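Ticket #4471: structure export looks truncated?
Reporter: QA, pipeline team
Priority: medium

Steps to reproduce: submit the single chain below to the structure queue and open the exported record.
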Amino acid sequence: MSASDADRDIWPSLTSFSEAFTCYSAAVATWVACEDARWERVVNPGLFLTITEAGDGLLGYAHFPPEFRATLGLARIGSDDPDEARQAVLDELARSGRVIVAGDGFRLPWHVAFGRRHVPHWYVLRDSGDGPVLVDPFAARNDLGTQATATHPIARDELAELLLGLPHDDPVSLLRESLALGDDAGVPDARRCQWFIRAAPVDSRAPRGMHGPDAVLRLARHFREHGQRVEAYAQADDLWSIARHRAFLARYAQQVADRRDAGALAGWVSEHAAPLATKWGHIAPLLMQATLALGAGRSASASVPDTLELLAARERAAAEAFPVDALAGWLSPAALETR
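Actual output as written to the record:
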């Protein structure tokens, strides 16, 4: 079976959200879509956000409810031996049909960071019947260029190199990985190759921190107090991720409104979700402007904390106006609880 044959059923629906995914949500969405046509309902976190205190000037970001990973039944495992990892991944493909790989963009030929920068990148391998097929519906632009969606067969002799993960030396990436599925999974160990398999039961621990609009206000305070130090912007990608999740919510809610001819939901998207997603999209360039100013020896403006305070108010208004009845059956119970 070719890559196009293997993924014809899920690829169009996944790539329709390419610009609203993070690499983490893209991988989970793909993993779920392999067996659930309503994958959007499963992976949509609604307005969920938790910010934790991580020490050393860092904050932890959880974008999914803490029970999310346990509900999915995902367990992170690994090996220091790439050949052993390759066989274990092939075994999991034979058992459950797909695997999420916790990879490194530096080693992935389809990634914009290939051979240039070590960056976390999750992707899915799917069993085609004739071997592994890469399914990666994530797309974005960054300072390295354009990251395009990709799906194609992976030769077995390529697989060991593609499974090699990040160097274990970046606290920002390690913190991001520890909270990527909503629970506090702890810092990943240092095994060279790591991937996720279906397992049950899976234990989870809720991260302690601030939630929803209060979490956004905590971000505003961070930049109000530390915004004249370039180190304060080390986690800019985590704020970009919030923008991606809000874009996902707005797009999905609009799709539901269109399918159901739900006027209340369409009104909420127009009045709250779409403007919220747009405003969050302004954060990344504001963070870049601030770092450029500091790098040039100038002071950063107050635009980042000012905008975050405005976003906190908009998040609160969106949550209070959330049309739960209109979304019944189209959102996961966890997402409904975060309204």
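Status: closed, not a bug. The export was complete when the record was re-opened. Leaving a note from the reviewer for reference: The chain has two domains: 3-198, 210-337.
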